[in-house]
Design goal:
Length: 255
Amino acid sequence: MVKITSKIRVLLIAGAMCAYIAPNALAQAADANEATYHELLQQIADAKISIGQQQVFVANVNARIESLTQQLDGLDDVTKTVAPMLDKMVAGIDAAMKADFPFKMDERGPRLQRMKELVADDTATIGAKYRRVLNVYKIEVNYGQGLEAYKGNHPVSPTVREGDDRYKKDENGNVELNEKTGQKIDIFDGDYLRYGRTAFVYLNNDNSSPLRFDLATREWMALKGSEATEVRHAMRISYGEVAPGVVTAPVFTMP
């Protein structure tokens, strides 16, 4: 019988342990490598998706740039066409206002000037110019409809008022304020009334000095007393003081 010494026994145990541990270590290493491999595959897949998305984005941007480039190329043709048309519209509005009744010129004059300045501005876009001209054009066209009355001074001999004399005062001599706006109430000689673009008249507050503007002579002409009564009635309709009704415009007729 062969005796196994303690040293041999230790060697046999160590060999057995190595035989057991080595396969397990290899298996764990293989599992780790497989996990790393799958992780790399996932990273590659994610990278491909990201690259694909970037390529789509770049393609869309390039397509938009190309579209904008084509639009800009066509803008020169549009500008060449629209710019002369705007100049003609501005000239037409200017000429029409000069030949028109001189109503609300404190509003219409500055509006016309602002439009001219914008159209002449090289830094303004063609769209901004077109919108401004079209807006002024619409406003002027709408003046041809309905009655419109408003306060104003005498067109031939306006009263000169200075300081607080320009404003309405109460019985104690204090300047009155508008209840709605809180603003001082201006005093004017009378009222103007525009019958669309058919007639333009003026009447003093006391119903005296009835006048109509004559387009042919560009002068203010006197109206008959009977016509003044009709004018005052039309003004009250315009101010909403009486119910709407039929009015007669003092139109000049050739003899």
